[in-house]
Amino acid sequence: QGLDEMLEERAKVMPVFVMFYAPWCNHCKRMAQAWSELGDRVRKSREMIHITKVDCTSAQGSLVCSRHGIKAYPTLKLFFNAPEGAEVREINYKRARTSEALFHFAQEAAANPRKLQEKINAEADETAQRWVHHQEVESKGPVKELSDFNFDEIASEDGTVVFVQFYVPWCVYCKKLKPTWEELGLEFAELPDVIIAKVNCQKQKVVCKHHVPKGYPTLKLFINGTESQYLGPRDLSSLKFHVEKSLWRTGFKPEEYTNLEQYA
After folding, report:
1. Residues of the chain with pLDDT under 50
2. Where's the Thioredoxin domain (predicted)?
3. 204 with 147: CB under 8 angstroms?
4. What is the chain's percent helix, strand, coil content, to nearest 5?
5. Catalytic residue among 56, 174, 201, 208
6. pTM score of the predicted model
């Protein structure tokens, strides 16, 4: 019996929460503790949900990951039993990746996975409706402007590298960085796996309160909701290299980036 069949059989008995990962992935390594804590809490609380992980670089794991469209690491999915006669259903996890948020999600899934799916679908519909009416966050040029409203959704987008500049209009250093940031946006404008973005902290108070530790501009890179602050040089070449290196680590490996293999 293959790994995928085992997952499906187990999901028919109780929900299965899976982390798809690669051993070389730094974001996976950072998340390992939270995932381990989740497993411990689920066992102690005796929640009816199975916590596991799949190594996408192993022989069987690669087949499972391919079937479920895993393109970046770590990717989290919940599998649960569908109505009789239907295939096992799955939900992509797009919430915060803390042990507390993961455990809360696991509790909801254990209690009623179908209700959880309905809730997530409703949230997605509401987000889509609000997006249409939220004109201030529309893309203007190569750099996407984010807000309190759409930040979490964009920053946690599966398989996408999101590089964000948090700024305020009056900041001298932000003004100096502006043309370079626009050039960086142009560099990746044709690559859907990369979003170069900015957040005006004079307007978007909620996001900035959470993500800006000290001053402006603050640069942070997000992959699948996992963030890391960029503290390196702010010239175009250095910024571009940082994005390319991050792309490589997600598993996206275009030929022109083969010189980055040492960073995988």
Report:
1. 130-138, 253-264
2. 1-111, 118-248
3. yes
4. 50, 20, 30
5. 174
6. 0.53
- Closest Cα to residue 226, out of 34, 30, 36, 25? 30
Structure tokens given for 246: 């991050």
* Dist. CA 90–CA 117, nearest whole Å: 9
Tokens of 8: 């499906």
Taking residue 209's Cβ as centre, other Cβ atoms within 10 Å add up to 10
Give the Cα separation of 96 and 234 in Å (integer): 28
Residue 208 is among the residues annotated as catalytic for this protein: no
Provide the residue type at 113 as one letter.
P
Exposure b/e, 31-50, CB count within 10 A at least 16 = b: beebbeebbebbeeeebebb
The total number of residues shown for the chain amounts to 264
Write down all domains in the chain, each with its CATH number in brackets.
3-122 (3.40.30.10), 141-263 (3.40.30.10)
Please give the pLDDT value at position 99. 84
Specify the residue for token string 């479920």. Answer: 68
219, 143 Cβ separation under 8 angstroms:
no
> Rounded mean pLDDT of the chain?
83
* Dihedral over Cα of 103, 109, 112, 114: its sign: positive
